[in-house]
Amino acid sequence: AKHENYTDSSTVRLIQLSSATEVMRAFRQGQLDVAALTLDEVIRLAQTEADLRIFLITNISNGADKVISRYPIDGLEQLEGKRMALEISAVGAMMLMEVLHAADLTRDQLTLIPSTVDQHIGIMRQAEVDAVISFD
């Protein structure tokens, strides 16, 4: 919106945060008047924000959900016994279910590490996890 001059910078200030968790925190603290979130994030936010209003629904997705591994793998079944980070959200849960199904694994066969998307690069670089469920 800013790049395409869709907003008047004298009345609207656009802020880009690194994760939905940060957006929700800033909204709860009154630092934001409006937030762009997925439906599952809005539902979670509505549990603590009584005066929440949805005024626009979009149907836009880059379709870039993915599993990223620290090492080469030939198949998802090789994730068995590994530490996998994921954002605790509906999308993260859905992706996890798809990965488990495709790999014929159960949740108990992985060590799941809750994390926000902005943490994924750091925890991969620091070898805190073997793989992440993430997105672009």
Automatic annotation (TrEMBL):
<comment type="similarity">
    <text>Belongs to the bacterial solute-binding protein SsuA/TauA family.</text>
</comment>
<dbReference type="Pfam" id="PF09084">
    <property type="entry name" value="NMT1"/>
</dbReference>
<keyword id="KW-0732">Signal</keyword>
<dbReference type="GO" id="GO:0042597">
    <property type="term" value="C:periplasmic space"/>
</dbReference>
<dbReference type="InterPro" id="IPR015168">
    <property type="entry name" value="SsuA/THI5"/>
</dbReference>
<protein>
    <submittedName>
        <fullName>ABC-type nitrate/sulfonate/bicarbonate transport system protein</fullName>
    </submittedName>
</protein>
<feature type="domain" description="SsuA/THI5-like">
    <location>
        <begin position="12"/>
        <end position="133"/>
    </location>
</feature>
